Amino acid sequence: MKSLKFRRRLLAAVLSGATCLSLFLSGCTGERDTRPVWVLATASPEDTVTQLFAERFAQEVEELSGGEILIRVYPNSTLGGDRELLESCYDGDIPFLVQNTAPQVTFMSDLAVFDLPCVFDSLDDCRAKLDDPDFYQSVCDVYTQGGYHLLGMADQGFRVMSTNRAVYSLEDFKGQKIRTMENPYHLDFWQALGAKPTPMSFSEVYIGLQQHTIDAQENPYEVIVSNRLYEQQDYIVETNHLPHLISLIVNDQLFQSFSEEDQAILTQAAQTATQYAREQSDARISQRIDVIEESGTQIITLSQELRDEIRARCQGVYDAIEQAISPELYQGYTQ
User: Do the Cβ atoms of 145 and 108 come closer than 8 Å?
Assistant: First the structure.
């Protein structure tokens, strides 16, 4: 249950933003603009694909609706962290949300399907799966049952490993103390490789690497560069073990209250924003790789043989997730 302090912070921020935007839109006429301003929140910094995804969606909605539907984006945990935002979206306090799927597993267990490691060898394959109408509808059903409506799903590329030890074989993972999110399937994956996964607040990762409290961490390229984690690491290992997926969702009750015309506008805007976010993700990954290589940190691409060995080692993770989620969803993602 959200605290009173959080609700006050949320209400003050939303009312302040909506008031300022309304006054701006009224211009010099002195008349108050009465159009509602819907809130879209993220827990990500401004300079990320998540923010680009959110902003493009808001822009498209405004243009397609002729300015009748206005959305204001609140980034960087302004209205709360991942869990608070998801709860607030469910309650209807925050209508729209762009967020990585990993924190959502706690609320919608079937989304653990996206924690299945090493399913895809390329982002194109992953995106093709997400765009498959039958599979996408199955994912939509998960969100609907959870109280949300899925509008679109983009990504920030694959998650990769940064470390001070070169990795060319399974033996090289052994004993490495790697920071992960507090997700049981993520922990099980690294343990299966012989590493020592260590859940840690992301805000502590840089200093943890600097002080050698941890040896390694895993994140998409965008996060590694934006937080300068590569400065404390000699190698980036392209484990590509999980796609870093970001979903654009809206409170389902609110979505159903919109007219069919407005629902179509939101859907079309999300489709455009999703494609844009994917294009930006690809371009930014290339730029981030350049930054890392210029710093002297070496990027290691794993051999197909080693990738096959990793898949074999993490069969237990596959078994655990298969038992925990819908059989149709599991089969749809892995076949």
Answer: yes
